[in-house]
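This follows on from our talk about sequence and fold. Please put the record directly below this note.
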Amino acid sequence: MFHTTTTPSAPREQEGPVGGRGRVLVRSRRAALGALAALTLAAAVPVPASPAPEPVRWAALGDSTTAGLIVGEPTPALGSPDRDGCDRTTGAYPALVRAGLTTRPPHGRPVELTDVSCGGATVQDITTTRQIPTGPVRAPAGGWPSVAAQTVRAGLDADTDVVTIGVGGNSVPFSPMLVTCLVGGAGLPDVAAPCRDAHRHRAPVPAGEPTEPSGGPVTTGGPVTTGGQEPIADTYERIAQEYAAMLADVHRQAPGAEVITVGYPLIFPADPGPCDRRDPSELAARIDPLGTVSVTHEDIAWLHEVNVGLNAVIRTVTELSGDTFVDSAAGGEGHDACSPRAEKWVEGICGEAAPYWPRRLALGTYTLTCPVGARATLVHPNAAGHARTARLVEAAIRAALD
């Protein structure tokens, strides 16, 4: 009564000799091919690269002990229209620290250094005043034009990560003080301390009779008297105030920066006994028109106290500001200007320097003339001294960025 229609079934996969296992293998091959296709497609789709790490923006500010002056090659190079009379060099500690941080970047971050340090800079030249550089190497006929305050030149802002500052000596002012001590000590015994006494009592510094290298009296010129000197206690107080104001300005201009101040190396020995008053590679000099002059041993000991005292002022103000102080004088005993040549971290009045640096240098109304083969180094750090400071500053920067 009813007519039934039969629908043919779909063909079955042929089983292999192992029956159901064959079906499993076929399905596995299909799954593997599908996964391979997916991987191939994924590989063809570009994967966004990880963003490059933000660079560490570091500004190096300071005076000649930061700029370098006598070590390495000038930067900008001699002949460059960008030269400014500040005498920065490739051998100075900022360049050495940058090399170390480039070799082993802190947390993988590249370092961008802006070095605007300048020989002769005072504390106020860092943030406030325009400076007239006095670099003696190929200076233009009319002198170097003034440069803006260093924080302006460095472009400090909210993105600045690190600021290092090495300044204070020219605010003493140290170079004129050294010349005063040289001239004042001429012909006087080692127990005399004309420079120290003048800076304690705001008195003029009377010079003794200059002598020729042979020991006889010089026939040109005569006794020299310098003007009244600021008492050293007043000097420390003034610099402390200037330094505190400078650090506050730096923090206002670079509110996110780690600020690291760098003290001065140990220039003068605590014990002046070994200092040879006839040796221009130490603390003697031929200064025209006076002849050979030198610092007395008592004044050398006092200049050591000034060196230590200035560092103490910088350290105290730095720590009160919540910043980091690098003690460049630490371990400096036996490496001062009176040390043997192989041990020096600081040159004497005359010493080793790059060949472009002069051996004759104007010092106000005087002219310093160094022996043939020597240069007018005026107690500046040499290559070994900058290498030493570089190790300390690099360690401080790495610690600040941790």
The chain is about 35% helix and 10% strand. The longest strand covers residues 56-62. The chain has one domain: 56-401. The radius of gyration is 34 Å.
